[in-house]
């Protein structure tokens, strides 16, 4: 039995690598990739804040062009716990403000030998575009309304840790589905894990053609909650103009806020999740945030662990392969 955390990680990992060089979308990941990340994340979670010398000499740059608390901190702490050199840039302090293009900025970060660049942008697809032109591994920490794949990984861990398997289980997602990149990655991973995905929200928050992606739309919240194994609440994204889609936040929360009474409609063993930031009494009743069925803080804890697994796998490949890229 290996004793140190590092030995356990190396034993469990074996010679396994991710099938991808960049972490852009849940669509790119195989079930094996998902399993590998989750197996390693469990060991990282048990190790807590222990410093493990896995990424010494590796530079990671967090480039966040949109606000963030937990995702940015989580990546920063993940890198530091693995002894990487971690630096951060934000939109307000970067040369993008002076008119430099995003690709020129990212090429600069790459020239500074950043092995991994973690990016959050307001534009969908920006990470996928720059990833084609730099040797650094690009991690999508949220691209516009599109995807947030590391969030989906921590959500998968949270759901699987509670329910064991998500095959045939019902995931009900409630809230501003239309503007949510969390939804974009969550339904994709839930479908890969074999779950049944329902969304419940006002009609105006339903993305066009969402049913064609295998998602059931049930606008009546009570019906959507009936039989749910996971109740996942999303914030109304006012900064994306969501206010124009509903009469008022009060009307919205009257019909869709998750309250104790509404949570009781779901299965007895259901868990309540939310990616944060929670707007208390609008998305979720205040008294539910720390309720025994709530996993909101567990999600944050799992975020640190899955991000450690992802950055380790991207930074240190066992097959020694170098990411292919083309200069623009
Ligand atoms: C989400 C985001 O920014 O996409 N938050 C997060 O990363 N945990 C969701 C949100 O802002 O509502």
How is this structure best described in words?
The protein has helices at 5-13, 31-47, 70-81, 102-111, 126-131, 149-163, 181-192, 221-225, 249-256, 260-263, 296-315, and strands spanning 59-64, 85-90, 114-121, 137-143, 170-174, 196-200, 215-217, 230-233, 271-273. The protein is an alpha/beta fold and 328 residues long. The strands form 2 sheets. It has a 5-stranded parallel β-sheet with strand order 7-6-5-8-9. The chain has a 4-stranded parallel β-sheet with strand order 2-1-3-4, sandwiched between helices. It starts with a helix and ends in a 13-residue tail after the last helix. The structure holds N-carbamoyl-L-aspartate. Residues 70-71, 142, 148, 151, 181-182, 235, 275-276 line the site of N-carbamoyl-L-aspartate (NCD).
Q: What's a concise summary of this model?
A:
With 328 residues, this protein is an alpha/beta fold. It has helices spanning 5-13, 31-47, 70-81, 102-111, 126-131, 149-163, 181-192, 221-225, 249-256, 260-263, 296-315, and strands at 59-64, 85-90, 114-121, 137-143, 170-174, 196-200, 215-217, 230-233, 271-273. The model has no long low-confidence stretch (mean pLDDT 96).
Strand coverage percent: 5-15%
Please tell me how large the radius of gyration is: 20 Å
Mean pLDDT level? 96
Shape: globular
Low-confidence stretches: none
The hetero molecules present are: N-carbamoyl-L-aspartate
Total of DSSP H or I helical runs spanning 4+ residues? 11
Structural class by sheet pairing and helices = alpha/beta
Q: Largest sheet, described in full?
A: 5 strands, parallel
Strand order of the largest sheet: 7-6-5-8-9
User: How far apart lie the N and C ends?
Assistant: 49 Å
Helix and strand pattern: HHEHEHEHEHEHEEHEHHEH
